[in-house]
Amino acid sequence: MAVILKCVAWVAVLMATLLFRERVNSEPTQDKQALLAFLSQVPHEQRLRWNQSESACGWVGVECDATNSSVYYLRLPGVGLVGQIPANTLGRLSQLRVLSLRSNRLSGPIPPDFSQLKLLRSIYLQDNQLSGEFPPSLIELTRLNRLDISSNNFTGPIPFSVNNLTHLTGLFLENNGFTGKIPSIAPPGLDHFNVSNNRLNGSIPSALAKFPASAFANNLDLCGGPLPPCNPFFPSPASSPTLQPTVIPSRKRNRKLSTGAIVGISIAGGVLILVLILAVIFFILRRRKKRESPKVQKPPAIAATRAVGEAGTSSSKDDITGGSAEGGERNKLIFFHGGGYSFDLEDLLRASAEVLGKGSVGTSYKAVLEEGTTVVVKRLKDVAAGKKEFEQQMEVLGNIKHQNVLPLRAFYYSKDEKLLVYDYMPAGSLSALLHGSRGSGRTPLDWENRLRVAVSAARGLAHLHVSGKVVHGNIKSSNILLREENLDACVSDFGLNPLFSNSTPPNHRIMGYRAPEVLETRKVTFKSDVYSFGVLVLELLTGKAPNQASLGEEGIDLPRWVQSVVREEWTAEVFDVELMRYHNVEEEMVQLLQIGMACVATVPDQRPVMQEVLRMIEDMNRGGGGETDDGLRQSSDDALRGGSDDQTPPRASPPGVTP
Ligand SMILES: *[C@@H]1O[C@H](CO)[C@@H](O)[C@H](O)[C@H]1NC(C)=O
Ligand SMILES: *[C@@H]1O[C@H](CO)[C@@H](O)[C@H](O)[C@H]1NC(C)=O
Ligand SMILES: *[C@@H]1O[C@H](CO)[C@@H](O)[C@H](O)[C@H]1NC(C)=O
Ligand SMILES: *[C@@H]1O[C@H](CO)[C@@H](O)[C@H](O)[C@H]1NC(C)=O
Ligand SMILES: *[C@@H]1O[C@H](CO)[C@@H](O)[C@H](O)[C@H]1NC(C)=O
Ligand SMILES: *[C@@H]1O[C@H](CO)[C@@H](O)[C@H](O)[C@H]1NC(C)=O
Hints:
- This protein is α/β, with parallel strands linked by helices.
- The chain has helices at 2-25, 29-41, 136-139, 240-267, 269-292, 300-313, 317-321, 345-350, 387-398, 430-435, 447-466, 516-521, 526-542, 558-567, 571-574, 586-599, 610-618, 629-640, and strands at residues 62-64, 71-75, 82-84, 98-100, 105-108, 122-124, 129-132, 146-148, 153-157, 170-172, 177-180, 192-194, 199-203, 221-223, 334-335, 352-358, 362-368, 374-380, 408-413, 418-423, 480-482, 489-491.
- The protein has a seven-stranded mixed sheet with strand order 1-2-4-6-8-10-12, with no helix packed on it.
- Helix 5 (269-292) crosses helix 6 and helix 16 (586-599) runs parallel beside helix 18.
- One 2-acetamido-2-deoxy-beta-D-glucopyranose binds next to helix 3.
- The site of one 2-acetamido-2-deoxy-beta-D-glucopyranose has 8 residues, from loops.
- Residues 350-620 form the Protein kinase domain.
């Protein structure tokens, strides 16, 4: 019995000893293998002696968790590591929290399997010679707080997906070769950020504007935020420098004061009344002052009254979206209802912009805002209208709603800048579709679609004339935009003539569309719109640009060219060769030609009104009999001489067609 007991005790002691040993020697075997594999493949200084027969948790630079079961921290700064970080080594330290390999001579890319270090909170790789693009594997380490890859040789763009690192508090990318724009990086806790000494360009996103200028210094071409303002879509030198300074500070001041004012108001109603009385006085003062010297800086008191006014009515956001053109808010985009846009002038100024075209009234830009919205911004030049007139006209234009009219979404008026904001139409203009890269493998605009453009543009114009009582004034194929889904036309650029003085010299670009009387009177009318629309119809039919020199003789315009060809009984030659492939459409083409020619009558009174034009196009005999080419010449010539009227509806018999 005693023997047995002794035996049991002995076994127990033995087991305890074994267990104790096991505990003392316990170490992260797999992590140890990974570390050894790393060190064996990377040249390093001698002092980094990792003794294989000792626990890895006691090695220089290695720290484990409390139970020595895995490596938590690996810190090897300045130990002369040279060359690439081998794959399948450090990437296996699955529990790693902190990795520092800074100040070595590591080079090449960061291995993809770093993406397995899911628990990593900090990574310090600065001061090496690492290269390649921004390491994609690091983007997957969503628990990262600190990411420092500064002073390396990284190139390419900084990816927007850095935003996946939502816990980031420090991002250090300075002293590399990063290029392109800085994406809008906005982890909520980000408090350290540096991208200085790279080759970045473009505007600094608002989310990063809080960081000091030194965080952005020495790049290719950065602007905005703490740096001098950008001129995103304002390349012309004239007025751009004054725009930004007048706009942004005043907005900021307003915001600050408006919260102050809200607090003040909530203190006591009596104070509110007093403030309101003061506000009225200041309002009057401001009005007077504004009239005397419009450029003067707003004194704080006046800014305060404005803040009170804001707080008294509603939130300051309503000022932006309220659509009221009534004087109060200078330097703000005034939105009309609809469109669902929510951006402000600052966003617009920061947008990346591309010139779409220079027109007779200004330059149009395609502006892509940071949140991805795309709009068209038209920057008007040589506006003669005063603020009040301008706003009144905008009110008229902004309230026009029709599916074939491009809506005006917002406008901005200041002494130096007049901007209009429209929807962006990715399908482009009729002009581009009709004349762009002709011949070289493009799909020609077929007859069905040309007819659709004609009728939808006529609907838009008739709506402008009848419901809006607005003269378009600038009808041309580059102002007929097409909807991507169905090639329905949208007329754009309408109703701007009243903003300009009559003495503005007639622009050559729209000469081809301009009614003859406008050259003398310099006044656009409903009837001059009809003329321009007629030219547009002829352009659809002939495929010839009205201002193009290829009409044969120099100085002849499209209507006269068409008239001369028709008069000489070559009607079939008038039509675009691209339309000749479609059969059974000759009759329709001739009908539309008649309508177009009625519109371009020299005498304004002989032109039909727009709603009549629309009705004629809508009433056209669609899908008529199968005429042959011979039949076309025959019937068309008859029709154009006014001989056979039976195909056109009674009221549609256009005046002024017969030569
Ligand atoms: C490694 O550690 C063992 C045991 O602690 C020791 O005997 C040996 O000398 C060490 N080797 C080196 C190279 O330091
Ligand atoms: C973990 O390893 C270190 C270094 O070898 C050692 O000093 C420590 O006692 C170990 N801790 C445990 C709980 O085994
Ligand atoms: C950085 O990369 C460039 C081009 O890849 C190379 O010319 C340069 O020597 C590299 N610099 C360092 C410090 O490795
Ligand atoms: C970032 O996160 C989004 C959404 O979670 C995911 O679709 C995307 O693939 C991530 N990007 C990267 C580079 O991991
Ligand atoms: C930034 O630079 C790239 C070329 O490095 C260029 O393509 C791009 O247009 C530039 N962008 C801006 C906004 O200057
Ligand atoms: C950014 O890094 C540069 C270069 O290392 C340094 O001079 C500058 O002070 C840093 N700025 C900030 C805000 O950290």
